[in-house]
Design a protein that fits this description.
Layout lengths: L1 H24 L5 E6 L9 H13 L3 E9 L3 E10 L4 H7 L21 E5 L17 E6 L6 H9 L4 E4 L5 H9 L6 E2 L4 H6 L3 E7 L9 E4 L4 E4 L5 E5 L5 E5 L6 E4 L8 E2 L10 E4 L9 E4 L2 E4 H4 L2 E6 L10 H5 L32 E4 L2 E2 L21 E8 L4 H4 L7 E6 L20 E2 L13 H7 L4 H12 L6 H13 L3 H8 L1 H5 L4 H13 L3 H14 L4 H13 L3 H12 L13 H12 L21 E9 L6 E6 L4 E7 L1 H14 L3 E6 L5 E8 L13 E10 L5 E8 L7 E8 L1
Parallel strand pairs: 1-2, 1-4, 4-5, 5-6, 7-10, 8-14, 13-15, 19-22
Antiparallel strand pairs: 2-3, 8-11, 9-10, 9-12, 12-13, 16-17, 18-21, 19-20, 21-22, 23-26, 24-27, 24-29, 25-26, 25-28, 28-31, 29-30
Helix pairs in contact: 10-12, 12-13, 15-16, 16-17, 17-18, 18-19
Length: 746
């Protein structure tokens, strides 16, 4: 009997031991954490995020955590076992992450066995998007910054049965409870213009703080699981009907409730939350909607639906003695501050808009947008080409709701100029079969100009170890956040060393630091193509289109990028739209027509049986043949340069792009949104040619905000032996004549 008791006790002890071991090494719910290590994340609220993780792990006994740290690539993958809520090893790892580069959401793998995936990020990614499916894990998105892509964060969580955690809005315990109980978050609606036109039972408006639009404001239908958020300019739309109550709330702002009346426009001015008071309750007015129709630029709009004030002057108000646009507008518009010497490029209509990186209004001439001046003096645009005597009327739109009509371009107000002709006219030069060329004799040596390492590259060459060079770059980055050349040349050093991943990481910072600057984004795209990262360049071209959809040049660049990336059908489809003028946002591709024809024909000469070529005009299947074709593109409108073409006899001619010699051409480029030109020689002098760049007279170099040329040289274009060489040149590094290329015409 004694032995039986001993045996039973022994069996129980073994069972207890095995059960304890099993519990110790198993987990209630294994999770995956994707941690965004892009440059924009380095200043987020780490304390808040660590408090959230601490609260989450306190609700777990044993759990296995797969941590993936990423930016433009997967930086590290580690597995941590959290026992008894202790996560010190994981925390130590998170506290020692280096933040650099852009984030690429396409790196997030949702084809995993785990049931729960956490994504810590601000929701911004220019290099890819998360791809999910029906079997993806629940996704919890977590942010702790004010500048976020709330729409992306909400939708990614909502449509994957997860939850969006904004640590600046609610207390952590609320989110922990929601995640544990698998609560369904409020559904946020994002009404498109097409949907709004089909269904008129929606409310729209602008939320401000009295000076500027407020992004990421929560708008909820009280008592219903439905809501939306404002965009980065404070605009919103939500489906609602009379009697519904809208609740407006934002970080550090007093909550406001509005009862919907008969109107479909509700603008709200939120005030700071000084103390905890009851929410402000407003009853929206009903009836009495002004149905007066007024003309705003090229649009006929209901005056009441605008939500902002409109001021106009006509040619009768413009004096004949006005020498420029600034003088014509000076003193004519209340609340409009002209620039120094009445410079319209420095005009301010209302307060500064930090997220737009400018405080100057957008100018439209006959519906065509002009480039907008930036914050810095070197980013000022010149509108001197606008002749006051040609103006029919000028309309100024004040108030943030102007963005309802003009989107991002109108965030700081809009100046609409209508000319007497309805569109600016340009005199066309008489065409001849061949351009008239005046030759001079080139006196210097015909050899490529030796390029010395720049200051930034020299400073990195000191180090023998890549890790030490990268550490030095990170240290220098603190003082060069707004220096475009610093990032380009630092990236170049690592690319030349074969460190492609580090080079891309450094280069991609430009999209983090200049997300709205189309000139810098174009420079980034040029360099991504240089390093054959075509897909990422395509993401950047699409970003430029999102920021400024009226720039015709970007669509051609994107179509050619598809071609270089061997995405032939995509290239064909986009070229078909471009050649038939079916890009809705672009008024005209006329300035690019010759380039479009030659590029499209070149693409189609590579066609195979599988291509879909419906509705393409027959003329595009006839590829011309040229001895020489050179396409020059510049990164910034109004870029000045002079290029020498030196033939085998040392004779040269100059093709220039300067306001002194080609003002009308440059004005046309500005209005039509193209920044390139094509030069063709069908019967060129046989032998070796050279190309040289000359600094233009009076050009002021600015390495922090440089201007670039992208020069594509085709020899024997359209023939079997066709060759192409591409050069990307920083004009602000050209201080004297520079022979940068040579080629041979056989």
């Amino acid at each position: 009997m004694g032995r039986s008791k001993i045996l039973i006790v022994s069996i129980l002890c073994v069972f207890f031991f095995l059960n304890s071991s099993f519990n110790e090494f198993s987990s209630e719910e294994d999770i995956i954490i994707y941690w965004d290590a892009s440059f924009s994340q380095k200043d987020k609220n780490f304390n808040k995020e660590f408090q959230f993780l601490d609260a989450y792990f306190n609700n777990q006994t044993n759990i296995k955590v797969s941590l993936i740290v990423f930016n433009t690539e997967i930086i590290s993958e580690d597995i941590f076992t959290i026992r008894s809520s202790h996560w010190n090893d994981l925390k130590n790892k998170l506290e020692n992450i280096t933040y650099d580069g852009e984030s690429d959401f396409s790196l997030i793998n949702t084809k995993v066995d785990s049931k729960l995936l956490f994504l810590f990020t601000d929701g911004n990614s220019n290099f890819g998007e998360v791809k999910t499916n029906l079997y993806s894990p629940r996704i919890i998105t977590v942010s702790s910054q004010e500048s976020i892509n709330k729409k992306e964060l909400h939708e990614l969580a909502y449509y994957n049965r997860g939850y969006y955690v904004n640590l600046l809005e609610n207390d952590i315990s609320t989110y922990i409870k929601a995640i544990k109980n698998q609560e369904t978050p409020t559904k946020l609606e994002f009404i498109t213009r097409k949907k709004a036109e089909r269904d008129m039972s929606f409310i729209e408006g602008v939320i401000t703080d009295g000076e500027k639009g407020l992004p990421n404001v929560n708008i909820l239908l009280k008592g219903k699981n439905k809501g939306t958020i404002t965009d980065k300019f404070g605009n919103y739309q939500i489906a609602a009907k009379s009697g519904d109550i809208l609740v407006f709330s934002a970080i550090n702002m007093k909550r406001t409730e509005v009862e919907v009346g008969d109107e479909n426009i509700i603008d709200i001015n939120l005030t700071e939350k000084l103390n905890q008071l009851e929410p402000t309750v407003i009853k929206a007015k009903g009836g009495g909607i002004d149905s007066e129709i007024i003309k705003v630029g090229d649009k006929l709009i209901k005056k009441r639906s605008l939500g902002y004030s409109v001021s106009s002057i006509t040619s009768d108000d413009i004096s004949d003695i006005n020498r420029g646009l600034g003088e014509a507008m000076a003193g004519e518009f209340a609340g409009v501050q002209m620039g120094v010497h009445n410079d319209p490029g420095l005009m301010i209509i209302r307060g500064f808009s930090s997220f737009q990186l400018t405080n100057h209004p957008a100018f439209f001439i006959d519906g065509v947008p002009l480039p907008v001046s930036g914050v810095e003096s070197y980013q000022k645009e010149n509108y001197d080409f606008i002749d006051p005597n040609m103006i029919k009327d000028i309309t100024v739109l004040r108030g943030i709701a102007a963005t309802n009509l003009y989107g991002k371009l109108g965030v700081n107000g809009v100046v609409l100029i209508t000319t007497k002709h309805g569109s600016l006219k340009f005199k066309e030069a008489k065409k001849s079969n061949e351009p008239k060329i005046d030759y001079d004799i080139y006196e210097g040596p015909l050899e490529l100009t030796k390029t010395e390492p720049t200051k930034f590259i020299k400073s990195l060459q000191i180090f023998s170890e890549i890790a030490a060079a990268y550490s030095y770059y990170l240290d220098q980055r603190k003082d060069n956040k707004k220096n475009v050349t610093f990032f380009l040349e630092s990236a170049e050093y690592f690319f030349l060393k074969g460190e492609k991943s580090i080079g891309l990481r450094i280069l991609s910072n430009l999209s983090e630091l200049f997300p709205e600057d189309t000139s810098v984004l174009k420079i980034l795209a040029f360099h991504l193509e240089k390093y054959e990262m075509f897909e990422k360049a395509q993401h950047i071209y699409n970003r430029i289109i999102e920021v400024s959809p009226t720039i015709s040049q970007t669509y051609l660049n994107l179509a050619n990028s598809y071609f270089e990336d061997k995405k032939y059908q995509k290239s064909v489809d986009l070229f078909t739209k471009i050649s038939s003028q079916k890009i809705n946002k672009v008024n005209s591709f006329n300035g690019l027509q010759n380039q479009i024809n030659n590029d499209f024909k070149n693409l189609l000469s590579n066609r195979t049986v599988g291509w879909k070529l419906n509705k393409i005009r027959r003329k595009y299947f006839n590829l011309p043949k040229y001895d020489l074709r050179i396409v020059t593109e510049w990164s910034h409108p109004q870029t000045e340069f002079e290029m020498q073409y030196i033939n085998p006899k040392k004779q040269y001619f100059v093709l220039s792009h300067t306001p002194e010699k080609h003002k009308r051409v440059m004005d046309r480029e500005l209005l039509e949104g193209f920044t390139s030109e094509e030069y063709i020689l069908a019967d060129a002098e046989k032998g070796r040619w050279f190309l040289s760049l000359k600094p233009t007279l009076g050009y002021n170099s600015d390495l922090k905000y440089p201007k670039f040329l992208k020069i594509k040289i085709y020899t024997d274009f359209g023939r079997e032996q066709e060759k192409l060489q591409t050069h990307i040149i920083n004009l602000d590094r050209v201080s004297e004549d520079k022979i940068f290329a040579y080629f041979t015409i056989d």
